[in-house]
Fold each of these.
Amino acid sequence: METFIQQFINGLSLGSVYALIAVGYSLVYSVLLFSNFAHGGFLVIGGYICYFALRSGGMNIWVASFAALVGAGLSAIIVERLAYRPIRERTPVTLYMLIASMGMSIVIENLFVVTIGGRFRALPPVIPTNPVNFFGIATTSAFDILSLVTAVIFLVGLQLFLVKTKWGLAIRAASYNLKTAGLMGVNVNRLIAIVFFTAGLLAGVGGIFLSVRYTLYPQLGAITTKAFVAAVIGGLGSLPGAVIGSLILGLAEMMTAGFISSQFRDLVVFGILIITLIVRPTGLFGKSVGEKV
Amino acid sequence: MMEEKKPILSVKDLVVNYGAIQALKGVSLDVYPGEIVAVIGANGAGKSTMMNAIMGAVPRASGEILLDSKPLPSKSFQVVKEGISLSPEGRKVFAPLTVLENLDMGAFPISDRSAIEKQKEDVFELFPRLLERKDQYAGTLSGGEQQMLAIGRALMAKPRVLLLDEPSLGLAPIIINEIFKKLTEVNCQLGMTILIVEQNAKKALQLSHRAYVIQTGSILMEGRSADLLHDPEIEKAYLGGKK
């Protein structure tokens, strides 16, 4: 029972970090209708900014994290401006953006390999990882609780932004129909920049926590595959779906690691993906209803 | 009487290409302040293309669009800011947003909260049905209600010229009558200038003061709507007249 509770908390913690990544992924998908495979790059950029701000800049964790989030957000805007905007201004076919995103993913990864090398780096121990007794029923680490709480704060923040603000409303409208949102007087390019900044920023948060969990290296962005799987399970383009899918995945991984074997984690993850695609191809919360004519 | 004033909206030799196909082959028309102008024509004549070109939603190959004798910007969001709003073909309401949120979207360029609330009251006065359904998702409204919402949403930006693309599309005759009566109200009471494109030529001619007939991307004929309504050629081609 103690293992169960412990793995449950760890699962939620891992799942919530996936959720930060999956939500950004889904947000971009919902507006531009393509899977942005360069999303993992934003996460790595955030991680490295945090690393160097702490190591070489000697900044405290708050300043370093802030720099990492803003940096990851800006890098997302730059990627969109360089690689996607020229395509979407020429053609409505989103497949080209998907291909461009694969290219950008390789570019970002290799920029790091070429400039600072491919070795694994550990973030200075500024984020507490000591074990914590959880109300006397289980032992977990401070890091897991911290990442869970942080993820929840950012997800709630995102929800408030989408529901309470004018641009949030415009993003929700654009995720239903981007062109019509443009006809309402929304500057579509600015809206897309805001969407990418938000997605990049959330990926940056995930990047910092993943760097602590797994150490930092240029291919860390490949973890986005998990977030992508989570987004597909939840239903691509649906934000609640992305969160639920991520939690399911995080729990499944940790339960497998706790009760079966750590080596089966990925097997279970992709097993769940395959079952979802067979049983419910649109995902748990996927859009399947067309508009009423 | 209208002709003495300067046009508020003026389209000159507008050409739009879709790849190798010329959708508009030099269309010109004028809309004067306070009038309702209809553009009628068959499916595929280029009516919606013209509306989208005015809105900056499709690029124009050549030609000019003037608002108050000044060239209209080419990006949609700038066009809306200049004072032109469109109720698009097929309504295009934001189905997963509520009626209120749809109206808020229509008011996107306006930053003054109290002006938005005032504008909402005006829209609800015009379409009381929308007030009853204000918290409902737009996707759950009937076709007629969605059309009302699309028109109300376009009015939210306080446009100087209201563009309507096929407001009768897919609606029952009784609902069409109701909506067209409201459009007359919008024109008379709010003094709104309206440019409407319609396949339902009879309704459009009854509503409007002047009209243009468009065929395969060119203006074929123009005149006072009352005259066109009784023109034998129009009757035969567009009003389902027998003979």
Amino acid sequence: MYNKTLGALEEFVLLLILVMDKEVYSVTLAEEYHSQAGKSISLPAMHTVLRQLEKKGYVESAVGGASSVRGGRSKRIYSLTTLGYQIIKEVHQERNRLWKLAPNFTG
Amino acid sequence: MHQPPRWITAFVQWYASEHYRDEVIGDMLEAYDQRATHQGISKANWRYFLDALRYFRPYVIFGEENHSQNTITFSTSMKSIVSLSFRKFKKQPGYSLLNLVGLAMGLGCSYLLFLYVAQETSFDRFEGHENVYRLGTTYKIGGNIDHFSNAPRPVGPTLSRDFSHILSQTRVAGVNGLYTHQAYFEYDQRQVTSNQVFYVDSTFFDVFPYQLKAGSSPTPLHQPKSIVLSETLATRIFGNANAVGKTLELDGTTRLNVTGIFTQPDFHTHLPIEAVTSWDIGAREGENEQWAGWHVYTYLKFDQPQTKEAFKGTYEIMSSKYMKGAMERIEAEMDPILQPISSIHLNSSLQWEAYPNSQWQNVYIFILIGSFLLLTALINYINLATARSGLRAKEIGIKKVMGSTRKELLVSIMLESILTVLVAAAVGLVLIVSILSPFNELANVNFNLLDLFSITNLVVYLGITILIGLLAGSYPAIQLSGLSGAKILRGSFQTSNRGVLLRKALVVTQFLVSIALIAGTTVVMRQINFVESQDLGFDKNNLMVIELPAQENTSGIESFARGLSSHSGVASAALSRSVPGIELNLSFFSIPDADGNYYQQGVEFMEVDPHFMDVTSMKVTQGRNFITGSEKDRNASVLLNETAAQQYGWEGEALGKKIGWGTDSLGNRILFEVIGVVKDFHIGSFHSAIQPIAIFNTFRTPSHLLVRLQGSDIRSSIDHIATQWQEYDSQNPLQYTFLDQNYQKMYEAEQNIFTLLKVISLITLLLSGFGLLGLVAFSLQVRKREISIRRVLGSSPLQVNTLLGKEYLSMLSIAFIAGSSISFYFLQGWLDNFHYRISLQGWEFALALLLVLLLVATLLFLVTRKTINQNPGHVLRSE
């Protein structure tokens, strides 16, 4: 059974992974986060989040290509698992449901 | 492409685990490149540095065992082993700590003991020591045989001169009497005492390779009135100034020139020296030519190692040429004792040794104990580790099911074992650092931190530790990794009968040694008490012994002594040339036999004044004491102790007999009439029987002043005497000791052994307890179901306890029988060293057994309680 509690950052990152069409790894994710959320996040922090998500089973990773910039080192590419997709979808749906019940403020 | 600072990359490379290293550094490099391009090098460097710091997290450092990938591999990297070990330790902190402490104790203690052994066996092993020997002499006079560690003065130089294969020799003697090597120096109003002052031949440094410091004369002892000091002594006297060329005063009488300084030698020696003077300082008229008596320590340096037989030949040539006359005069046979210099420290205990030596038996014992401790710790570790193997087995089972290869398992078990042992070794080091100073006192050595942590020693220590780790790990490794994974998980963990038997045997051995040691401690304690409560034949309490500097005549010191007696704190005072408790001088006397013919005897003698008997509370049982002022008594009277009277066949009729000592100018014997017999008193320690002693009143000048103090305020009495002394002799400080303290020192060796035994007994007992714990824990685990079934069937906890306990009873009986026999044998041998001793009674061994029994019972009770009282239903169900 999966752990239903999902942090705001974790949720955001999952969404990013869903949305991004580039290769998803720490560097690109951190960049995307910066451009989407306006805030910056350090590499290690992003790396930690990804690891947590992987431990929870929401993402999976595979070893990806190397490049000369990386000194010939390979990178770790992340992608959503079915579970991961389900959970953000669920969260999203729950939010929507509540919003629908909220009073209609203009503006 | 931009390159970030190498050292940061290196740092990350170092701490990051294999698993994360590449992706982390790769990511960092990419980000760096981007930042460098867009934000500039310095910003990029800074960010790079911050990344490196932030990545420093446990999961990166220790890595992870699995990652959600296609294959599950178990990392055998050190990082994962470490984190696994941590977790295991936390899971069973009690047992783990116990194991660790036991191992640490074993490792640390045996390290210390082996260091001791290494030092003790390395005495006098300087370069060329194989050719250096000490020459002692055996005297055979009238049926008495004495072995002296020294030789008559002319022997050394004669041998060196006459024989070309003897390259060099040196004679050494204490500066204030052969046996007394204490003196004080005065320079610039400052007074410094040293206990290691000798006068030596100018060839001293040819035989003993001390390094002379720059500035020293190349031939420092060739000039008369010269002295060579050790670096430390020189600093004590002269401070930081260069000492060479300066003059100091020896014992307030002689001015000496400092001609050299030698550095601390890199070898330990049986003859530690702080200062050596030229030969003329100690040479007294006539003594240098005496071929018998007036001995000095003599060291010979040959061109190659010698055999005793070969040297005997050489010695005989010399003795027949020069020594016949002397030997005839004293009616003695004199034979050489040739000792290789490196063997002296552990083997030699002849008469008149400059310093008390050790014995090789001590080293042997230490080796035994050290090995035993090590072995014990090792066995306990394995025991305890395999006892907890339930947990271990599951872990291995899972690993195997997950696909770990046998090789990986072996490696991981080994590594874990080595890690644990290394940690224990570190803890062990901490332990011994904390007990270093008491150990130094006990074992009579001087280890400091430098010795403990010297590179060579540490390397050996680590090497042995790793070896032990491998050994300890091999047993569980081979056992467990070979079993089928599924089988382990299902729970049928094999227990080999051979293994259990071995472990039982080892625990029995531990208890055996415990019993032996406890019994030994008890016996040593009894003997020490016995010796201390013995009647010495005189009263050694509150007896102050003052060392007198050289006197011109006696009148001055005599009036001083009389003056002292007027003080209320002083009961009486006496002058003498002998002090009880110090080895007496030996000389040769002529004793008349039943027919009136005289034969020679070596006899120990004392020279005292008439007040001596009173001051020491010795008893004159027949006849009378010396009378003050009597010329006859001074020149022609002697007292004998009871043993002497007995030995010469004069029991009851000694009074009036005349013994001869020396000859007068006409060649006639000088005779002394026996005027009294003194009750036997113990001069030396209780190791040897009382010898015949002759007491004279002949001295010209005394060397000691004995003062019997009384009353409750000893301190003020001492102060009073000190003040009086100042007035009497402002030049020399008051030098005194107390007789009971001197006697204490004689038994220092035994006291130390006693304390050592106590400590070792305790440690062994503890380790045995650990050992038993391991065994019990293991068997409990195996027999969990059996116990539960018994409980279900109606046994009470007590009955189950008894059942389990009975097993250990048989083990204990074996331990008791073997342990008592062994210790009985050794203790009897040790007691034989004492002429006056207790006899072994049975209860020492019974006591030991009782103590061990108590320990076992308590342990068993505590440990099995939990298992026995557990709800049997739970146990049976959980299987």
